[in-house]
Design goal:
Number of helices: 5
Number of strands: 8
Mean pLDDT: 75
Radius of gyration: 54 Å
Shape: rod-shaped
Order of helices and strands: EEHEEEEHHHEEH
Length: 199
Amino acid sequence: MASTFLNLSIDTTLGGNSASDTIVASQKAIKSYVDSHSGGGGGTTYTAGDGIIIENNEISVDGTTTSEIDTVTTSEVTLATVATSGSYNDLSDKPTIPTTTSSVTSGSTSALTSGGAYTALSEKQDVISSSNKLSASLVSGLATVATTGAFSDLTGTSGLQTTSNLVTSVSSSSTDSQYPSAKLFYDTVGDIETLLAAI
């Protein structure tokens, strides 16, 4: 339905700062205004302070385009070299790391050649396995027999009968610490029985 407006305007700025409630904008003027402010048609331009302009997907400062918003590259931001190289050599203020054990201060808690941790670890076995057994001398609290395996190093053996006290004959020099063998006992009993039978 067509209508006639006496105050029809084709101004694509829609009056700008002097917009009026008594003027009607044309359809084309409205479309042009919307396109210019929504990215359609001729694009959208915004200002953000003195000298900063955002147009479409680019940012410009004082007339110089600095980047496209969706494709920022490392050359357009301030980064340390290590941010892109990932190399230890590009770090600044790197700590001094000793390259040899002689570079470590002797006597410090981290010394590798003497004092500190070196003394604490000196002569300690690093691996225990079937082929690299732990030395019993490094274990405290063991009885002597644990390392010698000798019967003579046992304690509490008083009164035990051993082969060194076994005798196969008796005489006037026999002692109470000796004990006769089974055969000696058998032969002695047989001799006594023979004597008794002859009486």
